[in-house]
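Transcriptional regulator
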Amino acid sequence: MSSAPQCLSPPSAAEAFGEHLVSVLNHGALCLTLSIGHRTGLFDHMRDRPPATSGEIAAAAGLNERYVREWLGAMATGGIVKVDADGPRFALPAEHAACLTRAAAADNLAVFAQYIGLLGGVEDTIVAKFRTGGGVGYEHYTRFHEVMAEDSGQSVLSSLESDILPLVPGLTDHLERGIQVLDIGCGSGRILNQLATLYPHSRFTGLDLSTEAIERARAETRATGLGNVEFIQADAAELDRHVAAQQFALITTFDAIHDQADPLGVLTGIHRALESEGIYLMQDIRGSGQIHGDLEHPLGPFLYTISCMHCMPVSLARGGPGLGAMWGDPRARDYLERAGFHDIRVHQLVHDPQNNWYVATR
């Protein structure tokens, strides 16, 4: 007589969690290799190309074959590229290229993979701060402004005309006629230079604490020959030392308030610098302000990691409150009201699950 089949018991909670951690390790490693694929242009070279050997791909990209071959190993085992046994040959599927190449515009997620390697570069310093407290200055973050410029290209530049400017009714008409605009925390100036190109009758001023970022912005302005934009290297908390009261019709900040040393002081300075009925447009991270309220956030682990390893430490390094990226919508509204804004409207864009867009009137 045959015995009855034995039922397999479900994996224990510890086993299931172990499998989850294995997945985390694999995906963390893939973030580093995705960043390499973006920075070396490998994804761009593989886009719309038939299957090719590692040697052919390396030659097309002008790279070393041995490194490319090992990188392709990570891409193939991670399900990023397809591989066959003939050669072997590798291909980047069109649906993957749509999320990983520069031609993908706002959908190129490989840009954000760069943050993992960037933050890994300060891990030792952050670990020390867990023991001693204090912050970590901007100078410790190599390539930060370069990566942030690409980040803003994804979340802002690609949708500036189609989605962001229309958040303020009639704004494009005012820009076409000519107004004064200030962007605080302008970084490398890509957004302002784009606006200055689109609206030659308006005048644009960018302000940022980083000398490196301001030099990049000025270099781009010189290269394009724009005459209606200028950049100031200064602390946003000292705005009243650099701009006059009620000088600007529009002031913008793009992901710049939460990591300030004095966020409330910056917002108060913005209110002072706006004309009567002037508009403040603030992009900042979408969050509830409570960890339990962010458990279902699609980018929760990513954003809390960036906050812990960058946004909070750079504020603390300059004596700030260390709000962190996930300071949350309730606190953002409170700070805006305390700065003097009372007509505050919050928008969300379909393509941008990471940010809220605040439109506040003086």
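thats it. The mean pLDDT is 94. The chain has two domains: 13-101, 119-361. bye
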